[in-house]
């Protein structure tokens, strides 16, 4: 199993319609085959400047790679993520 997690902050003002539209588009990633246990999260801690998180799991490395290469994911990255995300950190882990 691989857990793919990304925390990020947007270029959009907090509470704006642009922010809501981005998060809705991000939630649509849950429909890509192989995505399991998808969550769209709001950061509540004060130890970093990120505002949101996405978390999802994949059965194995092959399922994760299919997600990475999926046209819906690559389109989201190109059309939404790159122009709208100000900063992020991505973590991909597997259980020990």
Explain what the structure shows.
The termini are close together. This protein has helices at residues 17-27, 61-69, 71-84; strands spanning 2-10, 36-42, 52-58, 85-93. It has one domain: Alpha-Beta Plaits (2-Layer Sandwich), CATH 3.30.70.100. A 4-stranded antiparallel beta sheet has the order 2-3-1-4. It has 96 residues and is an alpha+beta fold. The chain is globular, with a radius of gyration of 13 Å. It is built from 3 helices and 4 strands. The mean pLDDT is 97. Helices cover 35% and strands 33% of the residues.
Summarize the structure.
The protein has helices at 17-27, 61-69, 71-84; strands spanning 2-10, 36-42, 52-58, 85-93. By secondary structure, it is an alpha+beta fold.
List the helices and strands and how they pair.
Layout: E1 2-10, H1 17-27, E2 36-42, E3 52-58, H2 61-69, H3 71-84, E4 85-93
Antiparallel strand pairs: 1-3, 1-4, 2-3
Report the structural category: alpha+beta
Query: Number of folding domains?
Result: 1
CATH topology tier name: Alpha-Beta Plaits
Helix content: 25-40%
Do you know the CATH architecture? Answer: 2-Layer Sandwich
Termini Cα gap? 10 Å
Shape: globular
Strand segment tally: 4
Radius of gyration: 13 Å
Instruction: Assign the CATH class.
Output: Alpha Beta
SS element count, helices = 3
């Amino acid at each position: 199993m691989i857990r793919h997690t990304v925390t990020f902050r947007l270029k959009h003002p907090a509470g704006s319609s642009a922010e809501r539209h981005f998060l809705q588009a991000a939630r649509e990633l849950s429909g890509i085959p192989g995505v399991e246990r998808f969550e769209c999260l709001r950061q509540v801690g004060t130890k970093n400047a990120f505002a949101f998180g996405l978390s999802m799991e994949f059965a194995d490395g092959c399922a994760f790679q299919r997600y990475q290469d999926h046209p819906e994911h690559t389109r989201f990255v190109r059309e939404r993520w790159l122009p709208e995300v100000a900063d992020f950190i991505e973590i991909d882990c597997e259980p020990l």
